[in-house]
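Sequence in, structure out.
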Amino acid sequence: MAEIARRTTKNNNRVMFLIHRKEVLDQAVKTFKEQGVKMNLTTMGMVQTLTRRVDKLQTPNVILVDEAHHALAKSYQRILNKFPKTIVLLFTATPHRTGRIQLDQIADDIIVGQSIQELTEKGFLAPFRYFQPPNDFDSKLLKRSSTGDFTNESMQVAMSTKIFGHIVKQYKRIAKGMQAVVYTYSIDSAVKIANEFNSEGISAIEVDGTTSKEKRDLAVRKFRDQEIKILVNVNLFTEGVDLPNVDCVIMARPTASLAL
């Protein structure tokens, strides 16, 4: 995206970049500057901000939409509809949406990128080793939410409290000393997992949607600087966040969501 923006602004054309998360916006601004994009010809902002100021925005020649599976939302559509003649490029690693409305309703063409396997074989992505516990979760995971994924209540029933201790035990067996991000389904489970790690002398921090921005930024910085080993989160780091030093991902939650 930065290279497309660089070439566009090199020709003195205007670029707009849309995203919905502050952390991703900060990373994008840094990357665009490093890649030599002319920032005086570039508007970069969160969709929540730009949709309120849409009447004051200068017309861009190109709009780049990151995490574009969100682009069907009204806030995005308000901006995109304002500039009907502008070239719009939509980028997403998760083109499958959980609802009924899909991206082909707003895109003229869908260009499928290389698969994870191809990118791994070419050395762009790290190869994965997967480990899974034997489980009887499925018999308890009966209820689905409107998105098609399991409800928090059914996950709570399926994920007995014993599993929080198992997570730490298996981390020590398989990934001891690695920087790990843990994904879980509720604040309560996230706090319990972080406590289990800390009680075993493995430094862990829990962050979720109620965590203040300052505390969240501090947690990410400490994780990047390797001051803490384990970052436990509830649906925060599912897209677009740059954590280059992750050696281990722990999915402490079942899911029926293809995107997730």
